[in-house]
Write the structure tokens for this entry.
Amino acid sequence: TLFVTAGFASIINATAPLFAALVAGVWLRDRITIGGFLGLVLGFGGVVLLVGGLPDARPGTLPAIGGSLFAAFLYGVSASFVKKHLAGVNAWVTTIGSFGFAALLLAPLAVLNWPAVPPSAASWTAVLLLAVLCTAIPNIYYFRLLLRVGDASQTLGFAASQWVDRLVTAMRGHRAAPTWGRTLPEWTQAL
């Protein structure tokens, strides 16, 4: 990202299950148990602790953080929306519809911010492969899983996507950084 590190954005994105449970509790009247509520509080506290403060406070950082939080909130909204309104809709249709609508919304911004030097064919190929293989296809499985599992407050699809990320990283021969970003000595020092 331009204003926050990818690690910081990933940690903020990890609030998606928290938002999903809250949205399901408010919108769908899914009952949140005491244990569930404590889990939400601990989860949110853990995210705050893991972030360890704001990244460099340069111009654009706070809107980037706000945008990341808003995206995580929309994941929570989408889980409840799919459960309530799209229970009988094919996962392909849900995915194509959501990506098509997003493309329509973002197209004017892309035209307004077109780079002075046109992207190369290799760049377009990379973007297309990322869009199809790393976003569209996983989202088909996400919506399928969401419809099959049926509990918007669990967002198993989000956890599954993290496992897929780790598997792909390992298959490419890379070593994934610790998911939570801190070593035991760093945790001990922080506490």
